[in-house]
Design brief:
Length: 126
């Protein structure tokens, strides 16, 4: 049988980003966890890759997003490299409204993997 449209995407690296909790009263401490699939555990390009957390505050657009960036930091010889596939960030959100978060991971070989946006809703205490 021939390949179906979209089959090429099956083995591409992907990031699933979740936030816990998704909703809470101000201030909310949320834990963001990103998990990469579709890379080999021995992929040296993803041994301590560059990581960027994108945060869009309530009422702002993606052009106004805050970015938390960490450069690639692998110092292992390629023969000892182990791909990092899980990323975590904890943030406390004080302003009520909808926050959007995205995770971007870039391997040393230039491959970039981006998650979809995840929304966290912060409610005002009445």
């Amino acid at each position: 049988m021939g390949a179906l449209a979209g089959d090429d995407d099956h083995d591409k690296p992907k990031i699933k980003l979740i936030a816990e909790p998704l909703v809470g009263f101000t201030p909310v401490t949320t834990v963001l966890t990103g998990q990469i699939t579709g890379i080999s555990p021995t992929d040296a390009a993803f041994c301590h890759p560059a990581v960027t957390w994108v945060r869009v505050n309530p009422g702002l657009g993606e052009n106004d997003a805050m970015r938390y960036h960490q450069d690639a930091a692998c110092r292992h010889p390629e023969s000892e490299a182990v791909a990092v596939t899980s990323f975590t960030k904890t943030l406390t959100l004080h302003q009520p409204g909808s926050y959007l978060f995205k995770l971007i991971v870039e391997g040393r070989d230039g491959r970039k993997v981006e998650s979809a946006y995840t929304k966290v809703q912060v409610l005002r205490v009445q």
